[in-house]
Amino acid sequence: MDKFLEGMAEILEISPLDVTPELDLTQQAWDSLAVVSAIALIDECFGVTVDGAALAKCESVKQVQDLVSAKIGK
Amino acid sequence: MNSKISAISSFLPENRLSNEDLAALFDDWSAEKIFKKTGIRERAIASADQTAGDLAASAAEKLFSEHSIAPESIDFLIFCTQSPDYFLPTTACVIHRRLGLRSNAGAIDVNQGCSGFVYSLSLAKGLIASGSASRVLILTADTYSKYIHPRDKSVRTLFGDAGAAVVVDAAAAESASRIGSFVFGTDGAGACNLIVPTGGARQGRSAASAVEMEDQSGNIRTGDNLYMNGSEIMSFTLGTVPAAIRQLEGVTGTSLDACDYVVMHQANAFMLEALRKKLAVPPERFPLRLEQFGNTVSSTIPLVLEPLVREQGGSGKLAVLVGFGVGYSWAACHVWL
Fold it and tell me: Whose CA is closest to A36, among B315, B229, B43, B73?
């Protein structure tokens, strides 16, 4: 999970310390490029690909994590 | 009869679209940020009266000159493009005349994008293996810039125009240079994710399709412009490319590790880096050539191969080529340089 949070920090161009599950993505640079980057990051960290549209709608890091867990769980 | 790649030349239009030009238009992205995200610094852009057919013909003329190849020696011309001069006639016929090829030389257009060079190579190999041709000229060229809305930064930052010319020759059995096996793939479910929706038979252009709309990311385009769903394409790529490589390994019995070069369609540096890490290929075996060109569709693979063939042609080094994208369409093959 650390590698994922670090990767998210890099994508959002913020400090890794600020990437908590509660982080509000709507206040970050969670744009189409960030979403594409996150798809690659999630594939690298968890070996699953999540739906881009669903990812774009996520408003918090926790929602992204839930999306990933749901994909892994399947 | 075996076949081999003998020579490659490329041709770029004069105009350049730099990251600085783009940063001036799109104020939330600096020139440096565009480079960091895409690996691209500038793209060549065809002028208003310069078509993909022109780029292809110029690449061929350059090839004839650089490699001392006679136009009369060409038995068959394949022009791979998604921006033909006309719906009809075949643009390859027009290019044939411009290049002064023999009247008994064949000429066809192949409509394929990112996978187009590998597909064209498979057709050239087939023509030679069947004894129908000894020397095939493959031309790849596109002017995606003409499909792109000037205010659509999602695609304007990525795509560039170019033309490439590749000669494929019959090869002796003992030739170190040869073209190996192919695997192909298609998934039409992805058709809507990289598309120019109008202007063809399915949906004509209209006043309605010409209306500008802004998407959630602030990109502006009309129904007549190129549309790309970046995240869908990324998901597709991460699943499909490794699977195609595994399939080629199965067919050939040659693992990826045995390949000297892994030559991917140069979509953008970010996607390529994700693939490189996923396939565990070291950077020195994963050539890139997009910083000055961007994504030139079916010309990206010839552009990467051009310096490799020039410097290492005849060496017998093994390259795996993987084209993937619009369609969805993909193909992979082995080429001994």
Answer: B229
Q: Looking at residues B157-161, what average pLDDT do you find?
A: 97
pTM of the model: 0.96
Give chain B positions within 8 Å (CB) of A51. Answer: 235
Q: Which residue has the tokens 């600096």?
A: B30
Domain A2-73 has CATH 3.20.20.70: no
What's the whole-number mean pLDDT along residues B10-15? 98
CATH number of B2-171: 3.40.47.10
pLDDT value at position A2?
87
pLDDT digits (tens, 9 = 90+) for B212-266: 999 988 899 999 999 999 999 999 999 999 999 999 999 999 999 999 999 999 9
According to CATH, the superfamily of the domain at B178-336 is Thiolase/Chalcone synthase (3.40.47.10)
* Catalytic site includes residue B295: yes
Q: Is B265 labeled as catalytic in the residue annotation?
A: yes
- Measured between CA atoms, the residue of chain A closest to residue B38 is A33
Pairing of strands B261-264, B227-228: unpaired
**Fold match between domain B2-171 and domain B178-336:** yes
A55 touching B (Cβ < 8 Å): yes
The number of angstroms, rounded, from the C-alpha of B327 to the middle of its chain's C-alpha atoms is 13
A32 touches chain B (CB under 8 A): yes
Omega into B84 within 30° of 0, i.e. cis?
no
Burial class (CB in 10 A: 0-12, 13-18, 19+), B90: middle
Q: In whole angstroms, what is the distance from residue A48 CA to residue B235 CA? A: 9
- E strands present in chain B: 2-11, 15-18, 42-45, 76-80, 106-110, 135-142, 162-171, 178-186, 194-195, 213-214, 220-221, 227-228, 261-264, 318-325, 329-336
Q: Is residue A33 predicted with pLDDT exceeding 90?
A: no
**pLDDT, mean of residues B26-53:** 94
Q: Which of B265, B268, B333, B334 is catalytic?
A: B265
Cα–Cα distance, B268 to B276 (Å, whole number)? 12
Q: What is the ipTM of this complex?
A: 0.91
Per-domain boundaries in chain B: 2-171, 178-336
> What value does the mean pLDDT take over residues B110-123?
98
End-to-end CA gap in chain B: 17
